[in-house]
Write a structure and sequence with these properties.
Elements lengths: L10 E6 L4 H15 L3 E8 L18 H16 L5 E5 L9 H15 L3 E4 L9 H17 L8 E5 L3 H6 L13 E4 L4 H10 L4 H11 L5 E6 L10 H6 L1
Parallel strand pairs: 1-2, 1-4, 2-3, 4-5
Antiparallel strand pairs: 5-7, 6-7
Bound molecules: zinc ion.
Zinc ion (ZN) binds next to loops.
Length: 243
Amino acid sequence: MNKTNRYENKSILGIFAHPDDETSGAGCTFTKFARMGAKITVITATRGELGTLGTGNLSVTREQLPAVREGELRKVLSLFGAKPPILLGYKDQEVQLERTAVISDKLLHYMKFIEPDVVVTFGPQGISKHSDHIAIHKGAIDAFNNYKFEVSKTVNLLYIAIPELVAKEFNLDIDGPETQPNIYMPAREYLDVKIKALRTYKSQEDAQEFAEWLENSTQYHETFKVVGLDADQSLLFEELLDG
Ligand SMILES: [Zn+2]
């Protein structure tokens, strides 16, 4: 079996709050497995209405921003080899106003349709403690706990996780499962794609700063916590798809 079709029957679903969350958390991973044939789908809750209004020579109005960020997201997903995004249509910083059961129902609907083998989302503190990230975490875990009993295959839920030392470097005030990754995905081979994707989010200062940091990093891993697996039991991402 060659490299491009090894995972052609496999499906990975990312569930995030804003355009660019998927790139920061899993851009290399999505690219790698898309190139190996897996179907990659990303659900994004908002169009990032409250983000920054441009970097470099780009300057957009608040009114233009949602369409600009949606356009950036679409470009980035095609760069990864992923499907076009599924947008839930919430407004930035308003996801927490929705009842978890409503978010969960929407996500379960898509899970049943997409039938992912692996779902990647935020952990309980949402990495940055952003209220949208936390609201999406709650909806996603609830949906996944229903979904896993509706499918006959083994499915796994992953949180974006950052080793404690790296979290400190980025001044992230998190603890618990999100600082205890048990998947270290070697990402150097796909780092150019992730940097290009972050640069594509030209409206967003954070994305540009992260791109600059990555341009100066010598080795890089994307790291995840497999829900239900102890921190000392590390495994390869491939093992979740090979089973
Ligand atoms: Zn976000």
